[in-house]
Amino acid sequence: MVTPLSFWLFRCIRSLLFLLPAETSHEWGLKGLELLRRWHLLWLIRPRIAPLPVRVLGLAFPNPVGLAAGLDKNADYLDALGALGFGFIEVGTVTPKPQPGNPTPRLFRLAQERAIINRMGFNNLGVDHLVENLKRRRYRGIVGVNIGKNLTTPVEDAAQDYLACLRAVYAVADYVVVNLSSPNTPGLRALQFGEPLARLLRLLKDEQQALMQATKRRVPLLLKVAPDLSEAEVREIARTVLRESVDGVIATNTTLSRAGVEHSPQGNEAGGLSGAPLTQASTTVLYHLWDATSGRLPLIGVGGIMQGADAAQKGEAGASLVQLYSGFIYRGPTLIRECVRALKALRHSP
Ligand SMILES: Cc1cc2nc3c(=O)[nH]c(=O)nc-3n(C[C@H](O)[C@H](O)[C@H](O)COP(=O)(O)O)c2cc1C
């Protein structure tokens, strides 16, 4: 049972935070969470979550509901977020060098539509900072690291950035995600197709092999894709991913579409749209991936999970694991519990 106290406390905190500009409330929310952790008060907002163990990517997850990339870009809040009941946490996107991201304002809450538009642009403190945080962490759960390229690195040289990040995080990550799907880094999404994708994945897989031999530890390598892909494009990506033996795919990142937010005053802000309007498009890409890979590839479903039923739908479409971002902002830790329950029911359904 969710204690009514944790539910109402989150509602109160959220009401106060939502009075602030979106990025300020994001920062204060995370700082507040860290304070609660230090004062041993996280139990106040942590729901009770039944275990739902699952083995995917050679890793043992306590439950299949994780936190998506972008909320804790530098792994500064890993211990606090990890104590909320997630089955795993993905940090990043991190780039080799620190970078400020786009000018503010760059984060917009579309509360009526239960959506978010962001054009953060990979603001982060660089991979060395993230690695130090991961070395110091107390959280013993599964941590994925999402890697990207610096804005100043030409797209043709992107591989160098991804390789540098992979080498830097390999020893401290449980899995690594190659993010080619952010709409906020010019040219990045073009790397999802054809020969550029195959070449990049081959280089990274070779490096993974070398690192595995050096460290005697195998860290799975995943690809995160955009939702704005035709079925034919998804099939092409699936073929490349299977050919290059990529370990899994995360579907999906945010969308460039504005379907569902046409009437919002902020609906025309540039950036990637996430939350409720993304649910169907994201699940469709997930299903096409599952179909194109004949269910042989581990898939993580993310995009518009706002309630337990959305998580179950991702499970039905082929996801072994799911991740939350926008839904977590709107619903809080209660949503983790709801998704775990829905996925448990799915597992036990005929
Ligand atoms: C403010 C914000 C920042 C994000 N930053 C990243 C990021 O750095 N790397 C990444 O792979 N995805 C990032 N995402 C995308 C999420 O991880 C997720 O794929 C997307 O929001 C869809 O899930 P949702 O509808 O549950 O939010 C970001 C999303 C938001 C809202």
Describe the protein:
There is one protein chain. The chain is of the alpha/beta class and 350 residues long. It has a single domain, classed as Aldolase class I (TIM Barrel), CATH 3.20.20.70. Helix content is 39%, strand content 16%. The protein contains 11 helices and 13 strands. It has helices at residues 4-17, 22-38, 78-82, 127-136, 158-169, 194-215, 231-243, 279-292, 308-316, 326-331, 334-348; strands at residues 54-56, 59-61, 65-67, 88-94, 107-110, 115-118, 142-147, 175-179, 221-225, 248-251, 272-275, 299-302, 321-324. An 8-stranded parallel β-barrel has the order 3-4-7-8-9-10-12-13, surrounded by 5 helices. Helix 7 (231-243) crosses helix 8 and helix 9 (308-316) packs across helix 11 (334-348). The chain is globular, with a radius of gyration of 19 Å. The mean pLDDT is 94. The structure holds flavin mononucleotide (FMN). Residues 68-70, 73, 92-93, 107, 116, 118, 120, 146, 179, 182, 224, 253-254, 274-275, 278, 302-305, 324-327 line the site of flavin mononucleotide.
